[in-house]
């Protein structure tokens, strides 16, 4: 049995994270490679927020072309164990991000039977704030048209629709598999996970919408963490700030809408291409 690793040491109140952590937060030691950095997260934080915190602490050192697993130090075993499903931070703890030895599969052709389209938060209230919103609406509509023609399931989310409105009218939601409200950043809701589980052999997700550096990025990270290949459609995603968009896209796997549709491995005929305007 591995030697017991010492518990997280007490941290000083001055300049550290410990007894002086802000109300409603829990001190956590985030470990990556040879580094260990104390921070704090909201009480009840789960996998998504832990990943977000790892990125904020170690973003420039994390190779996004690898798969990772989050592990929790378990006192009863004296070593790290894989983060339990549904884990939520409730007390002081230590976690680490471990790169797996295998690299992510190189993006290749898409197969309709193993692909799902994710349309993220293309809502009316974002229209005046998001750069080039009209352009990404146009591209998004063409992507959904292609999904209908090819029989690819589509999942649509709307961020707090009571306050931010529904999906814009230009986006035709005819035939989509799910339209779900959400209040978290990621699209990976329990209902979405259940829907993916119902589709045998899902390997790839084509992801587009807003905002690139928030909901798109968090959704991509969660999907990759579950072993799903993610294709971000660069000309169908944007943010309020072009700098935010640029830095987010540098970390993600990008395709253009036209090349993405043509990458779907089907027997094309000219009528399909003409209908999509390609």
Q: How would you portray this structure in words?
A:
Helix 5 (212-225) packs parallel to helix 6. With 278 residues, this protein is an alpha/beta fold. The protein is 29% helix and 27% strand.
Percentage of residues in strands: 25-35%
State the total count of DSSP E strands: 11
Tell me, rounded to a whole number, the average pLDDT: 80
Biggest β-sheet, characterized? 6 strands, parallel
Oligomer: single chain
Q: What is the 3D form? A: globular
Cα-atom radius of gyration: 21 Å
Q: How is the largest sheet built, in terms of strand order?
A: 8-7-6-9-10-11
Helix vs. strand class: alpha/beta
Helix content: 25-40%
Distance between the termini: 61 Å
Q: Return residue spans where pLDDT drops below 50 for at least 5 consecutive residues.
A: 1-18, 102-106, 254-263, 265-270
* SSE string, helices as H and strands as E: EEHEEEEHEHEHEHEHEHH
Instruction: Count the DSSP helices.
Output: 8
Pfam families: Isochorismatase
Protein name: Isochorismatase domain-containing protein 1
InterPro entries: Isochorismatase-like_dom, Isochorismatase-like_sf, Isochorismatase_domain
Domain Isochorismatase-like: 115-253
């Amino acid at each position: 049995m591995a030697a017991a690793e010492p518990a997280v040491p007490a941290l000083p109140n001055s300049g550290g994270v410990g007894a002086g952590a802000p109300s409603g937060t829990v001190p956590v030691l985030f470990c990556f490679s040879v580094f260990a950095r104390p921070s704090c997260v909201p009480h009840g934080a789960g996998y998504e927020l832990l990943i977000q915190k790892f990125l904020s602490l170690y973003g420039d050192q994390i190779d996004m072309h690898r798969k990772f697993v989050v592990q929790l130090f378990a006192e009863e075993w004296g070593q790290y164990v894989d983060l339990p499903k549904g884990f939520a931070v409730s007390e002081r703890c230590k976690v680490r991000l471990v790169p797996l030895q295998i690299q992510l599969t190189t993006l290749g052709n898409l197969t309709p039977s193993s692909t799902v389209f994710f349309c993220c938060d293309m809502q009316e209230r974002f229209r005046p704030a998001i750069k080039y919103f009209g352009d990404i609406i146009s591209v998004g509509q063409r992507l959904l048209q292609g999904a209908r023609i090819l029989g690819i399931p589509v999942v649509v989310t709307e961020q707090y629709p009571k306050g931010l409105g529904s999906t814009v009218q230009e986006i035709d939601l005819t035939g989509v598999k799910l339209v779900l409200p959400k209040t978290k950043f990621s699209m990976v809701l329990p209902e979405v996970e259940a829907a993916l589980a119902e589709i045998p052999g899902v390997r790839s997700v084509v992801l587009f919408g807003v905002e690139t550096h928030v909901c798109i990025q968090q959704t991509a990270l969660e999907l990759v963490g579950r072993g799903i290949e993610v294709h971000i459609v660069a000309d169908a995603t944007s943010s309020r700030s072009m700098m935010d968009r640029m830095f987010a896209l540098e970390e993600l796997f990008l395709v253009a809408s036209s090349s993405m549709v043509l990458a779907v491995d089907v027997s094309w005929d000219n009528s399909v291409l003409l209908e999509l305007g390609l």
